[in-house]
Design goal:
Elements lengths: L14 H8 L3 E3 L8 E3 L5 H7 L13
Antiparallel strand pairs: 1-2
């Protein structure tokens, strides 16, 4: 996978690199008219979320 390092060398993503690149994801809090949204800040984040089989469009409510 390329894009994890500044020189774009192809490497296998490690847990440390995955957390580093996903660490800047932010959640935009929703309201009555707009649903919550995840803000992507790095180009590699969507690919990492896809590899983790994460659907950022699906809202998860805390268990009561």
């Amino acid at each position: 996978m390329s894009g994890l390092y500044p020189d774009n060398r192809r490497v296998r993503p490690t847990g440390r690199m995955t957390f580093y690149h996903l660490g800047e994801l932010t959640l935009q809090i929703g309201n009555i008219t707009d649903p919550p949204a995840v803000r992507i800040t790095r180009g590699v984040q969507p690919h990492l979320l896809d590899l983790l089989d994460t659907d950022i469009e699906q809202t998860r409510w805390p268990q009561a």
